[in-house]
Amino acid sequence: MALKVLYITMEFTNSFSGNGTASQSFVRSLIRLGHDVFLLCGRPHDRTDGLMEWASNLGPGKMSGRSIPVSVWNRLDMLSDWQGFAAGGDMALVQAVQRFGPSIIVGVDWSALDVYKAFGKWGLSADIPIIYYNYRVFHANTGNTEEETRFYKERERAMCALSAQGTVICLCKADASSLRQLHDITPRILLPALRDEVACNAQKPVPSPPAKELLMCCVRLGPDKNTKAFVDVVEALGERFLQEHGLTPCLVGAASDPGYAAEVRAQLHRACPSALQLDFVSADDLSALLRRSVLNFHPALNEAYGMTIVEAAALGVPSLVDSGHMIE
């Protein structure tokens, strides 16, 4: 039976992390399977969403939706504009959702909670079941303060309690265990799909493979991803060693914490002025960079999945990950 899915996520188009790319893969799969999707997402206040262009020719399911402009982008934590996301709806949005007639709601991460509550205040039926799709257990973030941990636990517990018949989806065993401690549920583990674009690129023959020269690190630039560890390694290796072995560090990622990102980028430039430093890149550009990479350095200490690890593997690049914490 075809579903009519109201999908709520802060990040979708204008992606800056694996959350956006994973949501795109999930929604694309729903539409290809014949389900209809009404997408409600955030977007930077100074950009368009490109939703309809993204959704063209996916069929046989149909996609409609709306984006809500937010004042802060590149963040999904409590310093994001989660309040603006929740308050950005209006009766026109509610009426559009009512005309769509969702049979189920999927809410991504804790930031979907207040959006869902807002719909309730505007008269959307509380009988529509909701599934909590957890891409990251935020209360377990590396470096959380007590206040941050308390904030995330409250919202993640509420999302677990709301979920239809305890239906919670997460990405790994460690996250399932963390969520089980918040509420009496048994989360289901669903691994994100390898992006279509990366899978296609991995299967394309390369007549003249490029030289393997890059030390790659592709993560958001923020403390939760421990990006500084990559720069510390580059610093320890030294510019002379890198030159002798024909290696160039390559740091790819959006700045989720501008101050932290500025420090990391400045340290990398001091350690190796020839290092490549790029913002979030397309799947095609990432594939091209990975083809040139010797190693993918993934420094996060607490990671549910690590999309880049899988994408690097698809293109034949090994990854260096932390072995003492929770990368699965």
Automatic annotation (TrEMBL):
It comes from the Eukaryota. Residues 207-321 form the Glycosyl transferase family domain. Keywords: Glycosyltransferase, Transferase. Pfam families: Glycos_transf_1 (PF00534). InterPro entries: Glyco_trans_1 (IPR001296). One of its GO terms (molecular function) is glycosyltransferase activity. The keyword Transferase applies. This is Glycosyl transferase family 1 domain-containing protein.
